[in-house]
Design brief:
- The complex is a heterodimer of chains A (212) and B (304).
- Chain A has 212 residues and is an alpha/beta fold.
- Helix content of chain A is 34%, strand content 17%.
- Chain A has seven helices and eight strands.
- In chain A, the strands form two sheets. Chain A has a six-stranded mixed β-sheet, sandwiched between helices. In chain A, strands 2-3 form a two-stranded antiparallel ribbon.
- Chain B has 304 residues and is an alpha+beta fold.
- Chain B folds into two domains: 187 residues, no CATH class; 96 residues, Alpha-Beta Plaits.
- Chain B contains nine helices and four strands; from the N terminus they run H-E-H-E-H-H-E-H-E-H-H-H-H.
- Chain B has a four-stranded antiparallel β-sheet with strand order 2-3-1-4, covered by helices on one side.
- The two termini of chain B are 32 Å apart.
- The relative contact order of chain B is 0.17.
- The chains are: A alpha/beta (212), B alpha+beta (304).
- Chains A and B meet through helix 2, helix 3 and helix 4 of A and helix 7 of B.
Chain lengths: 212, 304
């Protein structure tokens, strides 16, 4: 994969995420972790190669068929990408709203989830008034609220203290236990060591299986 | 955490948070649309007046003939006038045929020449006003020949040429006004397309995020199209109302006899015609809605 006419940032990368698996994606900064995640959450097309997602060859999927596939994926962006004009509640509810649910159907679930990540008292706060850690928790809650089939997270514990990091990982492990496939891109060795899961390492655009 | 959509019936509650933040600096767009709507209301008012004008004059002239008996020297040959009237009254389909009085003649030229002693002294032809029965189609050429034989100074006018010119003029005014309306519609669409593009650029982050989260193009487009629909509806309603006020004021001045030119039609719209101006905000809103939708969907197709 390459951006515009730039150099290839990923090449000869081949891997499979088994349904219900939990995988860490590691590697130094600039190795291509975020680019790999972008390919999987359908933000970028590969310049060459084959991606099969939910048993569909993406090269053969029409554009109009992509939104339902995207709604099966939850993403925790490294820079959170919250909507600043919406409250924490509305940010978390967004995937459900996009799926066509009504507030009466999801209100309780969203409030419970926000309480679980320690933001029960900040339901109506706008992201600019939240700390980095709080924003990260909102971003994680938004990614998991619709119980996606695949959850991708880019440094999901980068801005929170170790206790909260552990709590958030427990949330992801719990989600995984209910069948969601999880892939987390992280530098956090303590987190990786504490969680028994597969680890794939990206170095200079190439993928090395570290732990399976 | 049970987020699967449950199969229960719930009261519909609309999500409160707007997907897009409120537009900043949209006042200039509102102003442009209001001005466009004002110009459109003038053009539409022109169409209504031209139509009414044309219909009134055609209705006034339809079923009528005029015979002029030209003066011989300084006086009109009265004998020819009487013979012409007799021929006309004997013609099948003629309801009545009467000569106009001198005062009627002066009243006819007054709008153009004014009323003074010089005008009254002019050698006028004598006019015979002829009213036909409804639906009557007399043989104009035959009547013309009979009149010529009995009254050589008589000239028959069935107003056909005048009505033809009037129709052409009215049609030209209507066509020009429709051309202006079409141009205004195109300009409005272009303005909204530009504003939508600017709005998309301003909210690119949000739009891209929604796209990545699986929002359908039409969901994202809806957030834009309703914004521009409402904005155009309100702005165009203001512009059309201003146009309506102008026409209403012109109508009031006509009724008061102020600033009226007698051979021109009244330039005001009456109360029954003013509701036609409501077409303008409706059309503006629909144009804005359609343009915004098309612009957003075209822009979204640039995303994977």
């Amino acid at each position: 994969m390459r951006y515009a006419a730039g150099p290839e940032v990923l090449r000869d990368v081949s891997f499979t995420l088994e349904p219900g698996s939990f995988t860490f994606l590691t590697g130094p900064s600039g190795a291509g972790k975020s680019s790999l995640l972008k390919l999987v959450f359908l933000a970028q097309r590969p310049s060459r190669g084959l991606i099969t997602l939910f048993d569909r060859d993406l090269a053969r999927v029409k554009r109009a068929e992509l939104p339902p596939l995207r709604r099966r994926i939850g993403v925790v962006f490294q820079e959170f990408r919250l909507l600043d004009h919406l409250s924490a509640f509305d940010n978390v509810a967004l995937p459900l709203r996009l799926a066509g649910s009504h507030p009466a159907e999801y209100r309780r679930d969203v409030e419970e989830l926000l309480s679980w990540v320690g933001l029960g008292a900040r339901l109506h706060a706008k992201p600019p008034t939240l700390s980095g850690g709080e924003q990260q928790r909102v971003a994680i809650a938004r990614a998991v609220v619709a119980k996606p089939d695949l959850l991708l997270a880019d440094e999901p514990t980068g801005n929170v203290d170790p206790d909260m990091g552990e709590r958030l990982i427990r949330l992801l492990v719990e989600l995984n236990r209910f069948g969601t496939t999880v892939m987390i891109a992280t530098h956090d060795r303590a987190l990786i060591e504490a969680t028994p899961a597969r680890e794939m390492r990206l170095i200079d655009g190439r993928l090395i299986e570290m732990r399976s | 955490m049970n987020t699967a959509a449950p199969a229960r019936i719930v009261a519909k509650e609309r999500p409160k948070g707007r997907i897009l933040p409120r537009e900043e600096g949209a006042a200039s767009l509102d102003l442009v649309i209001a001005v466009m709507a004002f110009l459109a209301s003038l053009a539409l008012g022109g169409v209504l007046i031209a139509n009414r004008f044309s219909e009134t004059w055609q209705a006034g002239l339809a079923g009528r003939l005029t015979v002029q008996v030209l003066p011989e020297g300084e006086t009109v040959p009265i004998q020819e006038v009487n013979q012409a009237i007799a021929i006309l009254r004997a013609t099948p389909g003629v309801l009545y045929a009467n000569a106009l009085s001198d005062s009627d003649n002066v009243a006819l030229v007054e709008p153009w020449l004014g009323r003074d002693a010089v005008v009254a002294a002019l050698p006028f032809p004598l006019l015979i006003d002829v009213q036909l029965s409804p639906g009557a189609t007399p043989d104009i050429a035959g009547l013309q020949q009979r009149l010529k034989r009995a009254a050589p100074h008589a000239v028959l006018d069935d107003h056909g040429r005048w009505i033809g010119r009037l129709k052409t003029t009215a049609n030209s005014v209507v066509l020009s006004a429709f051309a202006v309306l079409a141009l205004i519609a195109v300009a409005t669409a272009a303005t909204v397309a530009f504003a939508t593009r600017a709005g998309l650029a301003a909210h690119r982050e949000i739009v891209q995020l929604l796209h990545l989260m699986g929002a359908q193009d039409r969901f994202i487009a809806r957030a834009f199209e309703w914004h521009y629909f409402i904005a155009a509806l309100i702005a165009a309603a203001c512009g059309a109302t201003a146009g309506g006020v102008i026409f209403f004021a012109a109508g009031s001045l006509d009724q008061l006899g102020v600033a009226t030119i007698s051979f021109l039609p009244p330039l005001g719209l009456d109360l029954a015609e003013l509701p036609w101006l409501a077409v303008i905000p409706t059309a503006a809103a629909v144009i804005a809605w359609g343009t915004a939708r098309a612009s957003v969907i075209a822009a979204l197709h640039e995303f994977y």
